[in-house]
Amino acid sequence: MRIAVVGATGRTGRELVRQALADGHEVVAYVRRPEAVTPIPGLTVVGGQLDDEAALTDALEGCDAVTVALGNPITKASAPLMQIAMPTVIAAAKNAGVRRVVVLSALGVGATLANTRYPYRFGCRTFLVGAFRDHLAGESLLEDTSLDWTTIHPGPLFDGPRTPHPTIVDAASRRRMPRAPRTMRADVAAAMLDMLTDPATFGRQMLITSVQQ
Predict the structure, then answer these.
(1) Number of domains in the chain
(2) Which CA distances in Å does 120 have to 108, 124, 155, 177, 208?
(3) For 82-90, what is the mean pLDDT?
(4) Could you list the residue range(s) of the whole structural domain that residue 56 is in?
């Protein structure tokens, strides 16, 4: 597959690019700072802003899917990001004829709050509320499109190797995730790549944690 990654310079985005290339996919990295990406075989780097529909449309031409792995730094956690990026991603995907879209979200965003437990739920309702409001504003736009979209909702993200059997469930199951849903970025990247070709995840909010249940 030829996969576009929006947010390829973030920690989860870098892991997504690494795994996609290792799996033999071609990758298009759409980034604000092309100089931050080291050129390697199989990787095409395209520079552009998150609100530049024309630039992103050009980047998506010939792609089979687009993944979004954006995230604000902690110092700007509540700054608008997804509500700026998602209208551009949706329009560019339609323009380029790309139907498959997988978006990195977070456990506790929107209806997935029902899948949380304390003490994590307390964070969702306090210091995470600004970032989660931004995610919801952007991701909810997918529901009224004809795109084959999936949002993936991990708990707090950590670096490290993949775990053997991460917990991955549909949020609609109403299953409550662990109280401390620690999640490895490597597990998230692998799940996002697997979901690209899994029609059972189309139009779904998928939960993931590296804690086995």
Answers:
(1) 1
(2) 9, 7, 9, 10, 14
(3) 97
(4) 2-209
